[in-house]
């Protein structure tokens, strides 16, 4: 199958530091190539892939200080996709919704994975206006606000099995927070949990410009007040394995409708249990009492830290291998591609039909 993967340009594929969507695009692309498919990746020029790379910017936009507006760069990307669209059986978009007007004439051979939150009020009229565009969710919970969308399925994220090695022992003796400093990720809750349990907490997270004030006014003062809390900055792929593998548990104290939560399965790959608040996709990803604990408040989170030793790190790794491998993810997407292609072949008349000659269905 000839497949185009169209990635955001904000980060490279895979990203050097933070970047969940681009990371998933990378894992999916490499797995599809390994399975023998012809894959073309439209992405930033500093991306690394075994597929054919179509560089649509010189480098990731987030790391280019001259970039002020990402939209013109993505329009250039879309023009390149439009120019080459007839080369592919399936075009798989990962750039939210900017391309919807462009792909309307050939929507039946496209699919768009929606990676972000969908409960924003501006989105409902948009998806009502484009009911024919095939879309995929990354959790069942994510799609609740948009029941009218043309859902083709839910595909949970997956990771290469050899990406993050299993760690049988949590040698670091600390709690971990990994991701992004923002109000909805609730690093303040993580600090409170560490303060109440007396355990060290290491925070590895990026700080976006829009969240700088939240860091300066809320989180940084909390870190300064608690000597057992350390902010270590962003971690890359090489240091993430050690950071997660040595942790006693990953804290995922979110307060928003999380579409998936990639860091949860990254921790599980290391055998590290997760303590997560019951929001969004959490009950779909985490198996309470097996791969971690799902809690509803700070008291329950503090109690869960005390029970974390009852979980089997080897069993957590086994559940990761069964449920969240890149191979399983790619196979799920191939099923979506096949259904779209089958529907398209049945819907589009063959030349003989167009000439009035009966054909065999």
Automatic annotation (TrEMBL):
Residue ranges constituting the Glycosyl transferase family domain according to the UniProt record: 173-299
InterPro entries: Glyco_trans_1, Glyco_trans_4-like_N
Pfam families assigned: Glyco_transf_4, Glycos_transf_1
Annotated ranges, domain Glycosyltransferase subfamily 4-like N-terminal: 18-121
Molecular function via GO: glycosyltransferase activity
Annotated Gene3D superfamilies: Glycogen Phosphorylase B (3.40.50.2000)
Name of this chain's protein: Glycosyltransferase family 4 protein
């Amino acid at each position: 199958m000839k497949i185009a993967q169209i990635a955001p340009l904000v980060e490279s594929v895979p990203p050097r530091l933070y970047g969940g969507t681009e990371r998933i695009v990378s894992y999916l692309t490499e797995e599809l190539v390994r399975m023998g498919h012809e894959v073309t990746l439209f992405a930033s020029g500093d991306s690394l892939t075994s597929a054919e790379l179509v560089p649509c910017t010189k480098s990731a936009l987030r790391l280019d200080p001259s970039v002020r507006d990402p939209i013109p760069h993505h329009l250039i990307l879309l023009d390149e996709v439009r120019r080459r669209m007839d080369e592919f059986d399936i075009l798989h978009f990962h750039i939210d919704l900017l391309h919807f007007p462009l792909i309307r004439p050939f929507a039946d051979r496209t699919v768009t994975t929606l990676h972000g939150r969908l409960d924003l009020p501006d989105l409902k009229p948009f998806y009502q206006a484009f009911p024919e565009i095939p879309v995929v969710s990354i959790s069942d919970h994510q799609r609740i606000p948009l029941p009218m969308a043309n859902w083709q399925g839910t595909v949970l994220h997956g990771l290469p099995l050899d990406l993050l090695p299993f760690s049988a022992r949590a040698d670091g003796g600390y709690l971990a927070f990994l991701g992004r400093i923002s109000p909805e990720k609730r690093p303040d809750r993580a600090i409170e949990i560490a303060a109440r349990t007396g355990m060290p907490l290491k925070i590895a997270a990026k700080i976006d410009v829009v969240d700088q004030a939240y860091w300066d006014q809320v989180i940084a003062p909390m870190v300064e007040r608690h000597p057992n809390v350390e902010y270590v900055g962003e971690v890359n792929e090489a240091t993430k394995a050690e950071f997660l593998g040595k942790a006693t548990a990953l804290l995922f104290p979110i307060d928003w409708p999380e579409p998936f939560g990639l860091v949860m399965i990254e921790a599980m790959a290391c055998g590290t249990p997760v303590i997560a608040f019951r929001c969004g996709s959490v009950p779909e990803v985490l198996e309470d009492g097996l791969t971690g604990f799902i809690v509803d408040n700070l008291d329950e989170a503090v109690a869960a830290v005390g029970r974390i030793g009852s979980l089997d790190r080897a069993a957590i790794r086994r559940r990761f291998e069964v449920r969240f491998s890149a191979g399983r993810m790619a196979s799920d997407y191939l099923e979506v591609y096949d259904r779209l292609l089958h529907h398209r072949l049945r819907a589009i008349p063959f030349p003989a039909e167009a000439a009035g000659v009966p054909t065999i269905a």
